[in-house]
Amino acid sequence: MQVFSATLNQMLVLFIFMALGFFLNKKRLLPLDDSVVLSKLETYAFVPCLVFNTFYKYCTVENFRQKWVYILYGAAIMLVSLIIGIFLAKIFAKDNYLQKIYTYSFAVANFSFMGNAVVLGIFGEDVLFDYMIFTLPLNLYVYSYGTASLVPQKEGKKFSFKVFINPIFISLLLGAVFGLLQIPLPKFITTAVSSAGACMSPLAMLLTGFVIGDYSLKKLASEKKVYLASIIRLIILPTIFILFLKALNTDIAIIRVALCATAMPLGLNTVVFPAAYGGDTTPGASMALISHLMSIITIPIMFALIL
């Protein structure tokens, strides 16, 4: 019950921001085009700061030497999840762009926006450190090809690697270089970057609620495929991974961070990036609404049963 209540409390804290965004939209307290402004703030400021700060702090030679096993497990789960995601996406959608959204959603959960907050709130900074190391391969995928694939392409236009030239991927490279080379930065810079990165999760939840406010809840909740996708993301995939890791007699510390990374709801980037680049946010909004509401119950139960 202690794990259940602690997890539930953290989930409800995050949902306050989503409810606030929904309220601000429905009451027209902010202009409707503010969703574009918020998403661009995420894409060009807060997410790059979070990514840079993560890689600057944790992508070090010492961490690679001490925690290479965590990175190895994280990379293995990332690869398997991506393969599963590509396969499932073809079943769930026929449209090419919608397939990319489903592939991304099955490949990675909301391990960053929500995962970081849940881990910190329940287990503290020591486990968060292990979690950050474990999720480095996930971050590498998400902020390279993952987010690049969510940028809407013009009809008939092939995927271009030019989409990698964006603030997020550049911040990833800079963070990794500064971290590996241990390049010192002035205190005021690291404080500013860290503070901006901390804004990313609340704003992402607020943005999601704001975007959901543009749609009929009945319409978003009527997407039957999203319920199945949410069950796969929240219950089936993490259960498969945890059972497999236990069969290999994996250390409980690795099992713990693996569960935290895979049992989160469908990611918010399927809302943030289509909104920033003028794409259709309906699929992402439906996934965010359904999977995040379901996760209020599934995450505490999964944590209580497994941990």
Derived structural class:
mainly alpha
Order of helices and strands: HHHHHHHHHHHHHHHH
The CATH architecture is Up-down Bundle
Q: How many whole angstroms does the radius of gyration measure?
A: 18 Å
In percent terms, what proportion of residues is strand?
under 5%
Biggest sheet statistics: none
| Regions with little confidence, pLDDT below 50 for 5+ residues | none
Helix amount: over 70%
Query: How many distinct folded domains?
Result: 1
Count of helix runs:
16
How would you characterize this protein structure?
- The protein has 307 residues and is an all-alpha fold.
- The chain has one domain (2-306): Na+/H+ antiporter like fold (Up-down Bundle).
- 79% of the residues lie in helices and 0% in strands.
- It contains 16 helices and no strands.
- Helix 2 packs across helix 15, helix 4 (68-92) packs antiparallel against helix 5 (96-107) and helix 13 (224-247) runs parallel beside helix 16 (282-306).
- It is globular.
- It starts with a helix and ends with a helix.
- 46% of the residues are buried.
